[in-house]
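Supplementary Text 2. Reproducibility record for the structural model of the 262-residue chain.

All settings were left at their defaults, and a single model was retained for analysis rather than an ensemble. We include the record here because the model underlies the residue-level annotations in Supplementary Table 4.
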Amino acid sequence: MSLFRFQVPVRALFRRPILAPQCIAARNNDVKSRHFAASAADVDHKLYEYRVYSIKPDQLAAFVKLTNEQIHMRLSHSKLIGYWMSDLGGMNEVCHIWEYDNFAQRTAVRAALGADKVWQQKYFQHILKMMSKQENAVLKAIPSIPLQTEPRKEGGIYELRQYTMKPVGPGVFLPPFLELLESRVKLHEQLNYGKLMGAWVTDIGNVNNVYHLWNYESLDKRTEGRHVVLSSDELKNMPITSMPVVTMTTKIMLPLPFSPLK
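Retained model, structure tokens:
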């Protein structure tokens, strides 16, 4: 069974209507009719906060050790999706994704952590000295791409791909992106290469960004799989140039021991 169930209007995720240019309206309507046809009840309304901490090079080992020892206090407040250390595409940084029911819950969690003297004394005040930069973004799950909890292989590698789109709105850039992504997922499933773990669009932060998280058995398996999939007739015949991508970045990440996604 395919992982994909693109059945909800993209604009159900966003507060303002988005008008597609007439030159691509017919194509987008065709894609939407195949992928976004069901009730909006399936939309994941949760918030996903993506955080990136840049760690001073001489403090990375100490940061990871302290986090591994004290993270249980943070986990009692909200749900952690995954926590990784960058291996390629980023150096001396950790990346983590947290799930919230809404902004009110996030505000309450932040307040509780700020008032938690044990958390502050045993952990937060220490890591402040270890970090050189913090970044975050609030993400919305792409409709009907279910967040996966079981990797293809525990102890493998994760790849987070980030595409910055032209500022035409998700109602325009998501349909061709999803069409391409669906084809890639099917080929990866058939050939037993990678597994799509989740996909999101930025709500707050660097807007017009799409994130998709993949799991692979190894870096070599990723390299082999991407070569085979991208060389396939199905991918070669797709109008990839219709996807309004400005930049693409990718990051290879290794899960830390306490990460729910291993």
